[in-house]
Amino acid sequence: MSIIDTHCHLISDKYGDFESLRRNSLALGVCHCITQGTDPHDWEPQLELAARCPDFVSVCLAVHPMECLAVSDADCERMAALCRCHPLAAIGETGLDYYWPAPEGHSEEDYHRRQRRLLEYHFALAEELALNISLHTRDRGTAHNCFDDAIAIARNFPRVRPVFHCFIGSPAQADTIFEQLDGMVSFTGLLTFRKTEAVQAVAAAVPEERFMVETDSPFLSPEPFRGKVNIPGRTRYVVDKIAALRGCTPEDIAALTTANARRFFRLPESFVSPA
Ligand SMILES: [Zn+2]
């Protein structure tokens, strides 16, 4: 099986020995990872890791929405410069997060406005570099709807395709992503948790060419490892769960999500060795 973990964070103080991480992944059928940058401190280490292990790691760079107040314009310019001179799979992880309250001293309104401005910056950069974009969106209740705000911004950049990572939205939201943005969704180990029937139903029904798999490691370890540090190899558990939901084999899900990921992130054929 050749599975691609399309969203993880390999630069993390949770990880020690990278070689054992890689061995464990390969043993579970996970042959490639797309590591996502989130802040100025991890951009260079992410790039170095991908340069050192190009067969196993591809990289995306961005500012995570929850870092939006910590970055300066100069940081953003430095990120753009790095993006212009390194091979990237996409721009990511960026997006909008209205779930967590604004940091002290900032109004909710300002915090969200700053996130939207930064997201527009990322979309413009993706458009300039002919890359797609990896999005985080998380809402609190329905009072503030960051999903709709993200859709509105994405519509202004029709040449950039978004993937809504760790998708937990409704079938109607998935349809909006597919029909209005030519976008994708990706599913995490959250599908293996109790009380996630709604998103399981989405994973069972989305069109074959519209979804990918990921761990979001070191976060979101699937059952039976919930609460532990997650590792890319456990994308296998997401694949197994979706196969069960869709009534097909893990090999089928691995093959189609790998083909989707290879297209969306424009990965060279050589990055995914047949196994
Ligand atoms: Zn993430």
Structural summary, described in words:
- This protein has one domain (3-271): TIM Barrel, CATH 3.20.20.
- The protein contains nine helices and eight strands.
- Strand 1, helix 1 and strand 2 (30-36) form a beta-alpha-beta unit.
- Helix 4 packs parallel to helix 5.
- Strands 1-2-3-4-5-6-7-8 form an eight-stranded parallel β-sheet.
- The chain is globular and about 45 Å long.
- The chain has helices at 18-27, 43-52, 73-85, 108-129, 146-155, 171-181, 197-205, 235-246, 250-264; strands at 3-8, 30-36, 57-61, 90-97, 133-138, 162-164, 184-187, 211-213.
- The longest helix is centred in the middle third of the chain and has 22 residues, at 108-129.
- Bound molecules: zinc ion.
- The site of zinc ion has 5 residues, from loops.
Could you give the distance between the termini? 6 Å
Major pleated sheet:
8 strands, parallel
**Secondary-structure content class:** alpha/beta
The number of helices is 9
Number of strands: 8
Structural domain tally: 1
Strand order, largest beta sheet: 1-2-3-4-5-6-7-8
Unreliably modeled segments: none
Mean pLDDT: 95
The whole-angstrom Rg is: 17 Å
CATH homologous superfamily - what is it?
Metal-dependent hydrolases
In which range does the helix fraction lie?
40-55%
CATH class: Alpha Beta
Supply the CATH architecture. Alpha-Beta Barrel
Give a concise summary.
The protein has a single domain, classed as TIM Barrel (Alpha-Beta Barrel). It is built from nine helices and eight strands.
